[in-house]
Amino acid sequence: MSKLWFIRFVLLPFSWIYGIVLTVRNLCFDIGIFKVTKFNVTIVAIGNLTVGGTGKTPHVKWFVNHFKKEKQCAIVLRGYGRKTKGFHLVQASSSHADVGDEALLYFNHFGEQIKIAVCEDRVEGVRQLLALFPNIELIFLDDAYQHRKIHRDVNILLTDFYRPFWKDFVLPAGRLREFRLGKNRADIIIVTKSPQEISNEERIKIVRKINASNQQLVTFSKVNYGEIIPLFSEEWKEVNHVLLVTGIAYPKPLEVYLSQKYTVKSLTFSDHYDFTTTDIQQIHDIFDTFVKEDKAIITTEKDRMRLKEKLASLELTHTPWFYQSISVVIEDEKTCLERIENIC
Question: Is the pTM of this model over 0.90?
Fold first, then answer.
């Protein structure tokens, strides 16, 4: 037995206790013991059963991009990593400390086209947002699959192709936030980060593992890596060596992708990591020494939201920092969108 499996075996009793508590909690919501607040707008929740790393942010962007021309859309999220509490509307003057990196990323992408708010209490967040903007018609809740206090019209569950929920365990033995049967609440299940080429046999195998009901739509999505974009003014020029700096839950797919084109040295930090001045100095020390020339620093779009402010404050806007842009392509996109359109 490997060390990892031994640790999981020891922690499994605690996982069962935690999972049972959450199952009882969900049952109380299902039978009406716990209150569920419903608003007069369409609400779509996008989340997962695991802790981080399934690609929620690009999927939220994908759905909002498809609806923002027809509907008054908004995004409500917790604002993980911020230094504030309560409700905050994201504005051009907002910082990472005010609203968190994901909220800033959404604002950077959509600008004033849609309203974006952070609030750890989704019910209060939606209530205050609608009080400010009563014309909103469609709200997307980022990472709210377990937030049962608010009614959602569509539940979208994401699971990573390489780390699917059916191979995982409940915390603390694994990364699941609840038992696997939580997938039964989903209207749409998307297997994210799928390979560019996937056989029909593999698709059938995965669909069987999910064991969805006839009412649930199961589909797949793939990551599309776009341009490498400068954090500041320096334009991207093709290099042979890359220092990859990440503070996300699962950077391995990006590392693999870049390794197909460059020699990559990877510096990995924890998810939503708040980079310090010392961290920046150490990163630059490594960058200065790992190769002599023909090199650049690449980070993720989400990390960019935290790093750009820090780099600017240290007057490092002249350094060759870039980020890898990404988007997603969802199969059965017409059916996916129709599930929401039919409710709006």
Answer: yes
